[in-house]
Amino acid sequence: MKKVITGTAMIFVFALLSAGALADDNAKSINLSASSSVADILNTAMNSKAHVFIRLKSGQEYSTKIIRSVGNAAVVIGEPSRREFYDVYILIESIAAVEVRVRDK
Q1: Angstrom distances, CA of residue 8 to CA of 2, 3, 5, 28, 38
Q2: Pseudo-torsion of CA 84, 77, 45, 98, nearest 10°?
Q3: Which of 42, 46, 52, 78 has the fewest CB atoms nearer than 10 Å to its CB?
Q4: Cα angle at 64 between 62 and 67, to 5 degrees?
Q5: For residue 50, what are the contacts with CB-CB under 8 A and spacing of at least 6?
Q6: What is the DSSP string of the chain?
Q7: Is 2-100 a CATH 3.20.20.10 domain?
Q8: How far apart are CA 72 and CA 56, in angstroms?
Q9: Cβ–Cβ < 8 Å for 56, 95
Q10: How far apart are CA 18 and CA 79, in angstroms?
Q11: Which stretches in the chain have pLDDT values below 50?
Q12: Total Cβ atoms within 10 A of residue 1
C-alpha cells in the first residue's frame, strides 16, 4: 500500500514539474525589440499565451494572460487581474507601455 501511494505521489510531482516547464517555454520565446509596434508585441504575447502588464497613459494598469484579439487600433483582453468577470477594450494609442514576462530569472 505504501509503495502505491509513493508511486502515485511521484507521478503527480513529475506531472506538475513537466507542466511548469512547458509553460515557461512559451514565455522564453518572446523577444522584445525597439522596432516592434505595440500591436506586434501584443500579437506575439497572445500567440505565446504570455503574461502581460499593459500600462495606459492615464496610469491605469491591466494584468492578464488572456489576449482575445489585437487590431490596428485596439486590443481586447480577457479576465484582467481583480476583474476576472470582465473583458477590456483598449485603444492602442492609449497604451504607454507593455510589460511581457520573457524569462524566469
Answers
A1: 10, 8, 5, 31, 46
A2: -100
A3: 78
A4: 105
A5: 26, 27, 30, 44, 65, 100, 101, 102
A6: -HHHHHHHHHHHHHHHHHHHHHHHHHHHT----TTS-HHHHHHHHHHHT--EEEEETTS-EEEESEEEEE-SSEEEEES-TT-TT-EEEEEGGGEEEEEE-----
A7: no
A8: 17
A9: yes
A10: 25
A11: 4-28
A12: 5
Amino acid sitting at position 85 = F
Tell me if 35 sits within 8 A of 90, measured CB to CB: no
Nine-digit cell string for 66? 488572456
Q: For residues 46 and 67, is the Cβ–Cβ distance under 8 A?
A: yes
Which cell numbers in the block locate residue 39? 500591436
